[in-house]
Amino acid sequence: MRDRFHKLAQAYRDRVYTYALYSLRRREDAEDVTQDVLIKLWEHADSLQEARVGAWVMRVARNAVIDAHRRRRTRSEILAETVDAEEAARTVAGGGATDGRARAREAREAIEAALERLAEPYRSIIVMREIQEMSYGEIAESMEMPLNTIKVYLHRGRAMLRAELQERFETDAA
Amino acid sequence: MRPENNCTWVRERIDPHLDGELRAGDAERLERHVAGCAACAREVELARRVVAELRALPTHGCPDAVVARVEALVAGIQTPAQGRLARARAWRTAVFARPAMTVMLVAIAAVTVFVLTQRHRVAGPAGERYTQAEVEAARGELMVAFAYVGKYSRMTGSILREEMDEGLVEPLDRAMTQAGGHVVEEVLVKPVGRAVTESQKEILETMPADGRSR
């Protein structure tokens, strides 16, 4: 059991951590989620079918991320997000940095922030598809949704990101 | 009006078009419209940029220390209760971060040790005795409950209630079933309940103004 767990942990540790980091944007929270998922993997390693491990791991990771988001929704977290949003707005209005590398970094930060604010299930689907390059089938199994629903939600999620980033990116282009 | 002359028709198909999912005829009609419509051209360009930025985001490697912590935690796991205990212990909040919590946990631990060392003298109202295995199983559930108490300093309100159901109330229920409700209730549940109520008040009263975890 230990050997199997070790192999599975090595195979999925980065995928879970990446997913948690883009969903939560804090390394400490992503590490907590990853720990929780890996411990659950230990408990179930012997009973998981090989072909379904990936989907199971991502399902558990998604539930852990949702729990972590819920725990954040205290008044102070909302206040912190409001401050971040205001700072972001000031950055957009002020034009931000002018050199290419700094603008690229700012664009990346803007899209990461927009992604973290995106509602479920759109955020999970976009992270799994666009960043982790999971297939539609894998995503459908992880999210326990029909494949066509995954495609529709992917497109809707992208549209939501465009709506949030439009001013930012059009300012860049100007 | 031909559908491809309608910007709404085009914009509904931008994402499937970027993914190569449009039929050939529709893809050509869309491209023809975009070539002649500045607004839709900007939409397509924005859509392409967002997708490109998303796909350029890097994947991240999980720190080795995280996996090492898990390996150390799971080394002793044999039962589902021990698994839940490991997950509770893995939580980053220091159990002894608050003096009141420390005092409460020490008191609970002292009571538990007293009860378990005196278990041969503890009997139910009908004189029933409990086997070592039953007491140990109940002890395991109670330790899960104690570990979850440490988690609670990061939670408030309705989230606390949900976590308490899983981490405290349910293990206590199981402990009472395993080692006798009368035994657990009189010497552990009531004192634990009073202590948790007091610590909840302390947590809510002393939560930092910005609510950020330390």
Descriptive keywords:
heterodimer, A: 174 residues, mainly alpha, Rna Polymerase Sigma Factor, Chain: A, Arc Repressor Mutant, subunit A, 2 domains, 8 helices, 0% strand, B: 214 residues, 10 helices, 71% helix, elongated, disordered C terminus
Class by alpha and beta content of chain A: mainly alpha
Secondary-structure-based class of chain B equals mainly alpha
- List the helices and strands of chain A in order: HHHHHHHH
The CATH homologous superfamily of the largest domain in chain A is named RNA polymerase sigma factor, region 2, helix turn helix motif
Tally of domains of chain A: 2
Largest beta sheet of chain A, briefly? none
Give start-end ranges of low-pLDDT stretches of chain A: 82-96
Tell me what portion of residues of chain B adopts beta-strand conformation: under 5%
Described by the principal axes of the CA atoms, the overall outline of chain B is elongated
Rg of chain A over CA atoms, rounded to whole Å, is 18 Å
Q: For the largest interface in this structure, which chains are involved and how many residues does each contribute? A: A-B, 51 and 46 residues
Largest sheet of chain B, described in full? none
Order of helices and strands of chain B: HHHHHHHHHH
- The name CATH uses for the topology of the largest domain in chain A is Rna Polymerase Sigma Factor, Chain: A
Portion of residues within helices of chain A: over 70%
Total DSSP helices of chain B: 10
Describe the overall structure.
The complex is a heterodimer of chains A (174) and B (214). Chain A is mainly alpha-helical and 174 residues long. Chain A folds into two domains: 82 residues, Rna Polymerase Sigma Factor, Chain: A (Orthogonal Bundle), CATH 1.10.1740; 76 residues, Orthogonal Bundle (Arc Repressor Mutant, subunit A). Chain A is 83% helix and 0% strand. About 9% of the residues of chain A have low confidence. With 214 residues, chain B is mainly alpha-helical. Chain B has ten helices and no strands. The longest helix of chain B has 26 residues. Chains A and B meet through helix 1, helix 2, helix 4, helix 5 and helix 6 of A and helix 4, helix 5 and helix 6 of B.
